[in-house]
Design brief:
With 369 residues, the protein is α/β, with parallel strands linked by helices. Helices cover 44% and strands 18% of the residues.
Length: 369
Amino acid sequence: MKIIQVISDTNIGGAGVYLLTVLKLYNRSKFDMEVFLPHGSKLEGEIAKLGVKYTCVNHLAEKSFDLRAVRELGKLFAEKKPDIVSSHASLSARVAARLAPGKINIIFTKHCVFNSSGLLSYFPFKQVNGALNNWLSDKIIAVSPAAKSIMTAVGIKEAKIAVVDNGVLAPPVLTGDEKLKIRERYGIGRDKFVVALIGRLAEVKGHKYAVECAKICEKADGGIVFIFAGTGELEAEIKKQIKELNLNNILMPGFVKDVWEIENIMDLQINSSLSEAASLSLLEGMSLGKPAVVSDCGGNPSVIKNGVNGIVFPAADAAQALADSVLAVKRDKNLYEKLAQGALSVFPEKFTAEKMVKRICEVYENAVM
C-alpha cells in the first residue's frame, strides 16, 4: 500500500513529532511510505535518518492552502499514484488529492483544538464547512475526543472520524546522579521542587497565567522553581512580564533539543493552555511517573484524570487555581505519590506510541477496503 504523508511544518512541533513516531514504527513490509514536506524543514534530516523517502515541495511551507502548492502536489500525486494521501493540516494536499486522476483515499489528521463558538457553528457556515471537509476527507483521525467534538460541532460527519489517542515513545530514564548534573547545569539546587511548562511560547498556551502562578507560589513557598521550555512569538512579552513582577523563580532556557532531560528533573508538569488537543509532553512526563496540573481545556481532561494522575483546574480562574494546585501537590507527599503512581499506571494502558501507530495503520487499511 502506497501512502504519502504531507506536512507543511518547517519546525518540529507536535505534528512533526507525531509523524516521526509513525515513521519509526510502521510496518515497512506492509506499507510503502513517502513524505512530502517544505524545503528547509527541520524534519528533513530526521526523516533521512529513518531511511524514509521524502520529497521537498515548493509553496508548501507553513500554509494550509496555496494554489501553487495544489498544482505542485497534483503533478506529484499523478506521478506517484498513492493509495492514500495522509494530510497533516495541509488543505492543499487534500484538494490536490481529490482533483488528481484515479482513486486516492484522503486521510486528514486533526492535531489541534480550537473553540467552535464562531460562525462555523451556525447555519449556513456549518453546513458549508461540513460539506467541504466531508468531500475532502475519506477518513479523519482525531488525536483526542475533544478534537472529534470540535469537528462534529462544525458540520463534519461523526462516521468519518476515528479517535486515535496520541501516543509517545517513552523518553530515557536518568539515574539520580545524571539528574543532579542536569540540575547543576541549570543552577537548580537538589532541594528545589521543579515545575515545568513545556511548549511553544504562544498566547494559546497561557504562559501569562503560569507567570502569575509563579508569583503566587514565590510568596507562599520559596522552594519552587519553574522552567518554561520552548520558544515562540511571545518570548519577549513573557520575559517582560517576569521582569515587571520581579520574579527570580522562573528559568527560560529557550529551545531544548533533549527535552527529556527537563522531563526527568521536573517533579511536576503544568499545562495552562486555553486550547489543547493532546499534549505530547504530558504523555512523556506521565511515562516517567511525573504527575501534571492542567487546565480543563480541550483534550487535557482526557489525558489527565483529576485525582488519578494529576489535577485538572478551571481555566476560568487560571492563575490562582493553578497555583493552589501546584502548592497542594508539593505540600502533600501522599497525594504526590498517589498521582505519580497513577501516571505510571495510565501511560501503558492508553498512550504508548506502539498502540497509537497500530491504530493509525488500521485506519489506513480500512480506508482502502
